[in-house]
């Protein structure tokens, strides 16, 4: 009869569900968390790597407070610093001159503000 298939169906269903539930325990033992993050799409992999880099624990919720400020970041070395390419040398020199010009403007502005503050203090 039709009910003769029930024992076989139960056995097959049980055997197919064992790996699913076994992964819970294996993940808990190996990575310390019972659930793995989905790595099917590239964005998910990138977010996993970002969280791991920021907190060394990709399963911990990370907010903006975990991302270091720009001042805290170490200055990265310019990859073209030792380059002999004339175009790169010219570009670097142009950037240096622009930075110097901006610093001079800021210095003049600070001096002007200091003079104004001194005038206000005198009055």
Automatic annotation (TrEMBL):
Gene Ontology MF terms: ligase activity
Give UniProt keywords alphabetically: Electron transport, Ligase, Membrane, Mitochondrion, Mitochondrion inner membrane, Respiratory chain, Transmembrane, Transmembrane helix, Transport
User: What are the record's GO terms for cellular component?
Assistant: mitochondrial inner membrane
Residues spanning the membrane = 6-26
Q: How does it sit in the membrane?
A: Single-pass membrane protein
Q: Which InterPro entries match?
A: NADH_Ub_cplx-1_asu_su-1 (IPR017384)
Compartment(s): Mitochondrion inner membrane
Taken from the record, one Pfam family name reads MWFE
Q: Where is the composition biased (Acidic residues)?
A: 67-85
Kindly indicate whether the keyword ATP-binding belongs to this entry: no
Where is this protein primarily located? Answer: mitochondrion
Q: Where is this region: Disordered?
A: 58-123
The residue ranges flagged as biased composition, category Basic and acidic residues, are 87-123
| Function, as annotated | Accessory subunit of the mitochondrial membrane respiratory chain NADH dehydrogenase (Complex I), that is believed not to be involved in catalysis. Complex I functions in the transfer of electrons from NADH to the respiratory chain. The immediate electron acceptor for the enzyme is believed to be ubiquinone.
The record's similarity note reads: Belongs to the complex I NDUFA1 subunit family.
Q: What's the protein called, per UniProt? A: NADH dehydrogenase [ubiquinone] 1 alpha subcomplex subunit 1
Its gene? LOC117135762
């Amino acid at each position: 009869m039709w009910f003769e298939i029930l024992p076989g169906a139960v056995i097959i269903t049980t055997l197919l569900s064992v790996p699913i539930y076994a992964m819970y325990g294996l993940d808990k033992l190996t990575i310390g968390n019972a659930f793995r993050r989905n790595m099917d799409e590239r964005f998910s992999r990138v977010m996993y790597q970002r969280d791991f880099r920021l907190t060394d624990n990709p399963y911990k919720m990370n907010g903006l407070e975990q991302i270091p400020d720009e001042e805290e970041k170490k200055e990265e070395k310019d990859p073209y610093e030792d380059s002999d390419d004339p175009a790169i040398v010219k570009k670097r020199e142009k950037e240096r001159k622009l930075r110097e010009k901006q610093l001079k403007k800021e210095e003049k502005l600070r001096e002007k503000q200091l003079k104004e503050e001194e005038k206000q203090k005198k009055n």
